[in-house]
């Protein structure tokens, strides 16, 4: 991962090239209402959002704002009740069937009876890839998340941070252009989190994947994102969309810069406004 | 310490309690044997006109009766030795022969029962209709006393021409499918939502989800159920041997023993049956350990 700063072959596209390409995710007036015994719950309402190729988009907001639900709608794990959504110019279901995204859950969700390698092989087995192809991909993604020496270990032999890296490797093995991540570092301590944020940023910069990232950490969102979507609850809706003015290449010490703090401030204001609406 | 010598195990506190319990059981057994056999012994003395029999003679006599109410442990062991080592295994008087008959019934019934249990569980987990329609009957089936239904199963199967091992194995199946069904339903339903969601994001088919997620998850449950199932299966096999007219098997030995008041024969058959159950459960435990170890889940 050290060679990342030296001209990766699939470098970041120029801003112009990105804006003319078709959106990876296009959401128009989307809503999702759960029918419960206490009446309908409006988990999402009037969501309008466009995510372009190579974007790193964070959903941030307090609990119950629908950020995870929105990610799950994109992944076809929840069904919308109104509006339009396309993923890779098709329905979320078709996108899922095409295996066009990799999903990283809040917990590593590794299968305890499979070694790290075998866990990564799981989606590849289901895709019906040859043993040789599986092997090649496993080695590649293990190197990418710096776990090459741990392929033969069982999940319980790894720390929480390493398990989460393994689960990211598993999502990457599918070689999706789109990565959906639901608070992947939420359960980790601050130091490990910083390290993984840095790794994720470099991975994204190197591969030019589109990433949709759910978090409730302001520094994490500002550090990683090209676009920050602030959501607020009841009904879950978008309060603010902030296009980051930070350069695409980022370093951890950028978090002290004035630019960074300005964006962080706007996110915080958005979160506050969303809350005060409540009580 | 590289090897665990008996002394070190004693010090570690595993051997001593085990030996103590075993000795206590044997001692209790002897006391009970003397107490239960004394009335008959006193009658014998009275009829023979013997009086003032010393206590030591009374005790030795109660432990060496031909048809005691409760045979002493050494009498049972003698009988087992006599009917295993001293008899050809093909002989109808060999306990090994009878144990083998019961064992084959047990294993056949267990294999059918376990397969049936797994099949039912798979159906129940994948279909709400099957869950609602089958589960009450499965539970009801186990509330019927097996002693009452066993002769009917044997008679019905005999009347349609099914004889030999199979009717008896059906009783074993009847008892052993239940724990396997219940355990497997629980096991197949135990994967976490997050794991099921993961399979959904991979667009895995139901079959793939079953073999790659549900089945591995259910294996520890399956082994636990199978341990209960095989013990029940042995009980079923013995019960199945009772109504067939006591031809062969440990059940037949029990019945024949009670016909002729051969209590030592009954107890030796009982001891053999519990030995068999212990070995069978132990074998499943060994398979469980090696399978789970390979899956990285052994404790």
Automatic annotation (TrEMBL), chain A:
One of its GO terms (molecular function) is ATP binding. Coiled coil: none annotated. This is ABC transporter ATP-binding protein. Belongs to the ABC transporter superfamily. Keywords: ATP-binding, Nucleotide-binding, Transport. The keyword Iron-sulfur does not apply. CDD domains: ABC_NrtD_SsuB_transporters. Residues 27-258 form the ABC transporter domain. InterPro entries: AAA+_ATPase, ABC_transporter-like_ATP-bd, ABC_transporter-like_CS, ABC_transporter_ATP-bind, P-loop_NTPase.
Automatic annotation (TrEMBL), chain B:
It is a multi-pass membrane protein. Keywords: Cell membrane, Membrane, Transmembrane, Transmembrane helix, Transport. It is found in: Cell membrane. The chain crosses the membrane at residues 12-32, 97-122, 134-157, 218-239, 266-287. Residues 95-288 form the ABC transmembrane type-1 domain. Belongs to the binding-protein-dependent transport system permease family. This is ABC transporter permease. It comes from Roseibium aestuarii.
């Amino acid at each position: 991962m050290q060679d990342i700063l030296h001209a990766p072959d699939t470098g970041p596209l120029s801003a112009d090239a990105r804006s003319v390409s078709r959106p990876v995710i296009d959401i128009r007036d989307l809503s999702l209402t759960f029918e419960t015994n206490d009446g309908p719950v409006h988990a999402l309402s009037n969501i309008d959002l466009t995510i372009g190729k190579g974007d790193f988009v964070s959903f941030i907001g307090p609990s119950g704002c629908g950020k995870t639900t929105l990610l799950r709608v994109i992944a076809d794990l929840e069904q919308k009740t109104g509006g339009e959504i396309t993923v890779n110019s098709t329905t979320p279901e078709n996108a899922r069937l095409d295996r066009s995204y990799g999903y990283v859950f809040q917990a590593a969700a590794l299968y305890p009876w499979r070694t790290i390698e075998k866990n990564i092989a799981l989606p590849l087995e289901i895709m019906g890839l040859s043993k040789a192809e599986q092997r090649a991909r496993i080695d590649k993604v293990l190197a990418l998340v710096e776990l090459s020496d741990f392929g033969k270990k069982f999940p319980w032999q790894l720390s929480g941070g390493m398990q989460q890296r393994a689960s990211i490797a598993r999502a990457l093995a599918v070689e999706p252009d789109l990565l959906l991540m639901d608070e992947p570092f939420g359960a980790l301590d601050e130091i490990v989190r910083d390290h993984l944020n840095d790794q994720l940023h470099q991975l994204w910069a190197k591969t030019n994947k589109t990433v949709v990232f759910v978090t409730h950490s302001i520094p994490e969102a500002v550090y990683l994102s090209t676009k920050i979507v602030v959501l607020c609850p009841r009904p879950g809706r978008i309060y603010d969309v902030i296009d980051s003015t930070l350069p695409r290449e980022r370093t951890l010490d950028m978090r002290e810069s004035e630019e960074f703090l300005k964006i962080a401030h706007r996110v915080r204001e958005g979160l506050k406004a969303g809350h005060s609406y409540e009580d | 310490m590289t090897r665990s010598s008996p002394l070190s195990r004693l010090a570690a506190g595993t051997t001593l309690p085990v030996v103590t319990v075993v000795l206590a059981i044997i001692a209790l057994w002897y006391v009970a044997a003397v107490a239960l056999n004394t009335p008959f012994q006193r009658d014998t003395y009275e009829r023979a006109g013997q009086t003032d029999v010393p206590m030591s003679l009374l005790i030795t006599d109660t432990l060496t009766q031909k048809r005691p109410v409760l045979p002493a442990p050494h009498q049972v062991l003698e009988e087992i030795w006599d009917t295993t080592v001293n008899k050809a295994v093909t002989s109808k008087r060999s306990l090994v022969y009878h144990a083998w008959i019961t064992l084959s019934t047990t294993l056949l019934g267990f294999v059918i029962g376990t397969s049936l249990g797994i099949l039912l569980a798979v159906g129940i987990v994948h279909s709400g209709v099957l869950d609602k329609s089958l589960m009450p009957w499965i539970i009801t089936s186990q509330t019927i006393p097996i002693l009452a239904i066993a002769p009917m199963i044997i008679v019905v199967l005999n009347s349609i021409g099914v004889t030999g091992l199979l009717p008896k194995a059906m009783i074993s199946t009847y008892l052993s499918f239940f724990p396997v069904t219940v355990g497997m339903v629980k096991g197949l339903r135990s994967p976490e939502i997050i794991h099921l969601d993961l399979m959904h994001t991979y667009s895995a088919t139901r079959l793939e989800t079953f073999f790659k997620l549900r089945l591995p998850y259910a294996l520890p449950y399956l082994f636990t159920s199978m341990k209960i199932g095989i013990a029940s299966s042995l009980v079923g096999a013995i019960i199945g041997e009772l109504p067939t007219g006591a031809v062969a098997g440990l059940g037949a030995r029990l019945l024949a023993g009670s016909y002729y008041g051969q209590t030592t024969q009954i107890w030796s058959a009982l001891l053999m049956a519990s030995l068999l159950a212990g070995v069978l459960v132990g074998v499943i435990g060994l398979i469980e350990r090696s399978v789970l170890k390979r899956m990285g889940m052994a404790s």
